[in-house]
């Protein structure tokens, strides 16, 4: 499948865009960014220098993914989400000089396969968003999110579990959780959730 790039998008020639991906109006994809196959970059979204995205990722309108973020396969980033990249941001040095690119060390957000970040959330680097987890809209993530966790709030805290379908799991008792949509069973142990083996 061909790559689709809107005429108003700004895609660096050094960016690598996977087959079947689409980049919509006013989006910017910087140098050395790598997008997998079938990715969608929404209107006005930003993909920073050297950001790496897996296959089938979606960045919704005006999402800001600053380098050195890493996204696995099937990651969803909602509208106006922001991934930060600086521990202690300042425009100037202590003596008032404008900071340059080599005056700070970039830190990134890592999103593992299947993770979803709700609209207008902020992920404060460095954090890892676990596999198939769900960050509720408007959350501020300041610590790692476990696999399959449903987190919400400022700062974000785990309020439940979700399965691969993205819907909250039902407590089946004795550490077992069930997806009401697919019937898949999950096992909770010591604050982590794993898929039950068939």
Total beta strands: 26
Q: Which fold name corresponds to the CATH topology of the largest domain?
A: UDP N-Acetylglucosamine Acyltransferase, domain 1
- At CATH's second level, what is the architecture of the largest domain? 3 Solenoid
CATH superfamily of the largest domain: Hexapeptide repeat proteins
Helix and strand run: EEEEEEEEEEEEEEEEEEEEEEEEEE
| Fraction in helix | under 10%
Organism: Candidatus Phosphoribacter hodrii
Protein name: N-acetyltransferase
InterPro entries: Hexapep (IPR001451), Trans_hexapeptide_repeat (IPR050179), Trimer_LpxA-like_sf (IPR011004)
Folded structure, characterized:
The protein has strands at 4-5, 10-11, 16-17, 22-23, 28-29, 34-35, 40-41, 46-47, 52-53, 58-59, 64-65, 70-71, 76-77, 82-83, 109-111, 116-117, 122-123, 127-129, 134-135, 140-141, 149-152, 157-161, 170-173, 176-178, 185-189, 192-195. The two termini are 36 Å apart. It has no helices and 26 strands. The radius of gyration is 18 Å and the shape is globular. The strands form four sheets. The protein has a nine-stranded mixed sheet, with no helix packed on it. Strands 2-5-8-11-14-17-20 form a seven-stranded parallel sheet, with no helix packed on it. It folds into two domains: 4-162, Hexapeptide repeat proteins (UDP N-Acetylglucosamine Acyltransferase, domain 1); 163-198. It is mainly β and 198 residues long.
